[in-house]
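Reminder to self: tokens first, then the designed residues, so the page reads top to bottom the way the pipeline ran.
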């Protein structure tokens, strides 16, 4: 049962939450407004509902923390609805785009959601405005923790969409993708991405790749050395590389195959073994990897892929295994022509 006590000591006042003191708490009136700062007290409050809290205070405020996002400060205010305020820290801002551009992009994304009421507040004492949402509908019978999880999901989605949009304007001559790999397979998946530069070289495309962690996501960039003209070819190659067809995965390695295809299969087999091992370690329900779909972990591609035209079939292992055009969940790849290009370099 929730027990909030209002304590006055001279000119100072604070609250206790189930016996946990928060002497830095801001309190206005004994039943109007309270903002908590102590994490232990906030963690207790999160297990209770708004109905529970509003027996003591009409308005409740505490900070929200998002892992791997150090660019600002976020607070949540609860009364009959929720208000989220985001303040950007100039000292911690290290992005290639400006804070002003980020806020504008965040606002644009927020306004595409009918249930999100965006606000921008310019404080005369602060050159950087605060922003966020108000009038978010919340259930008074849900725990503050559950409500907060939903709010965090919204904020993270908007931050990521804004980041991707802004990077796309900066990286017009690059392909940039975000991945959200589970920790237990992140190293193996990143290693597979590293091999993509060699894969492109086998296709006759000279490009550099770059991998780094950004806001908890894996950012993968491909920078063609042949300029913007090579981007479309790289997109097509990347879609197949991230989603190897079962014909490639399941067919055995043959000495009659081209070196490029053998190398690709070897990389796939290595990733399969690493994923199987990782899943076995965590006792996954199904540790057998039937297909490799790295794009399942892809958050969003910055530059869209154009659909190639239809064609015929192509032998992977002559007279034994052939493949036809491959249809992915969000794209269509001319796999026979792709394999022809891959093989042609070694004929």
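Designed residues (347 positions):
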């Amino acid at each position: 049962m929730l027990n909030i006590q209002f304590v006055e000591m001279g000119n100072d006042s604070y609250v206790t939450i189930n016996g946990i003191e928060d002497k830095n708490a801001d309190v206005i009136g004994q039943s109007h407004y309270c903002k908590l700062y102590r994490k232990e007290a906030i963690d207790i409050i999160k297990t209770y509902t708004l109905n529970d809290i509003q027996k003591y205070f009409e308005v409740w405020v505490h900070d929200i923390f998002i892992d791997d996002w150090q660019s600002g400060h976020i607070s949540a205010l609860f009364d009959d609805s929720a208000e989220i305020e985001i303040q950007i820290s100039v000292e911690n801002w290290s992005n290639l785009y400006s804070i002003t551009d980020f806020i504008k992009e965040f606002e644009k994304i927020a306004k595409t959601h009918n249930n999100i009421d965006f606000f921008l507040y310019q404080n005369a004492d602060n050159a950087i405005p605060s922003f966020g949402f108000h009038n978010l509908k919340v259930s008074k019978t849900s725990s503050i923790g559950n409500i907060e999880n939903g709010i965090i999901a919204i904020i993270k989605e908007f931050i990521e969409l804004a980041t991707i949009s802004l990077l796309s304007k900066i990286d017009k001559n690059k392909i940039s993708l975000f991945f959200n790999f589970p920790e237990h397979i992140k190293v193996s998946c990143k290693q597979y991405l590293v091999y993509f530069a060699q894969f492109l070289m086998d296709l006759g495309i000279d490009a550099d790749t770059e991998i780094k962690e950004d806001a908890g996501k894996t950012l993968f960039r491909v920078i063609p050395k042949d300029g913007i003209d090579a981007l479309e070819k790289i997109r097509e190659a990347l879609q197949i590389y991230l989603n190897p067809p079962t014909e490639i995965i399941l067919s055995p390695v043959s000495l009659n195959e081209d070196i490029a295809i053998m190398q690709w299969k070897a990389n796939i087999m290595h990733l399969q073994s690493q994923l199987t091992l990782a899943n076995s370690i965590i006792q996954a329900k199904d540790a057998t990897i039937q297909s490799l779909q790295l794009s399942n972990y892809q958050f969003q591609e910055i530059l869209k892929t154009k659909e190639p035209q239809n064609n015929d079939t192509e032998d992977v292992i002559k007279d034994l295994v052939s493949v036809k055009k491959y249809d992915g969940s969000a794209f269509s790849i001319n796999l026979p022509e792709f394999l022809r290009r891959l093989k042609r370099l070694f004929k």
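The longest helix spans residues 144-170.
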